[in-house]
Amino acid sequence: MPELVFFSGTMDCGKSTLALQIGHNRSARGLQGVIFTRDDRAGEGKLSSRLGLVTDAVEASGGMNLYQYVVGLVSRGGRVDYVIVDEAQFLAPEQVDQLARVVDDLELDVFAFGITTDFRTRLFPGSQRLVELADRIEALQVEALCWCGARATHNARTLGGHMVVEGAQVVVGDVNRPEAEVGYEVLCRRHHQRRMTSASAHAGPLSPDVLPVIRS
Ligand SMILES: Nc1ncnc2c1ncn2[C@@H]1O[C@H](COP(=O)(O)OP(=O)(O)O)[C@@H](O)[C@H]1O
Ligand SMILES: Cc1cn([C@H]2C[C@H](O)[C@@H](COP(=O)(O)O)O2)c(=O)[nH]c1=O
Q: Which stretches are transmembrane (predicted)?
């Protein structure tokens, strides 16, 4: 049975890498896919991974009907065996409905990759619709880590190394940016709630939550 699968995780946990691997393994067996993306850091019409791999993709811009796009390809004699969508959090909810239609009416697997929540821990509209419609939601096996060593579950937006909580939901960017720039850092929930990035944790006074080291 074809499926709509949502691979979700924090930033920097390997989603784009997995998207490229799924595409590679299928094309190695002669299958042909459509790869959609939206606002990848590498530029329009690109799907890129921090491991250095990049491939061409179709930019799923705001008003684009993803179902009609695939139908158009097939009706012009093209072959489509599966669909990959990266940065799926940026899709409009109706575009996620169109992906579900690709699965149900065209009987194709759709693999969508994206972060679930924004820097304020709120669902992106595209991710919310994926959670509502997906046949399966998969958490990535490679866990990104908070500076404290716990599994990172949330995305912080940073400026000058410190967490900001105001601003537009969508600001394309990356982790490990120079401190002066707007960037992102993945944190565990505890440190996201306390707005403790690695820079502020190391700059500030010892947190009362940190147990004192007792030397004998
Ligand atoms: N130099 C490196 N060596 C090994 N792995 C790396 C390196 N740089 C990045 N990675 C891996 O790539 C992951 C990020 O992959 P990417 O597909 O770009 O993430 P996402 O799409 O989830 O933001 C990191 O979690 C890390 O595991
Ligand atoms: C948390 C958060 C992220 N973004 C942007 C930043 C990046 O361009 C992408 C995530 O890409 P990745 O491949 O998963 O690293 O989303 C945003 O616009 N708003 C946010 O709140």
A: none
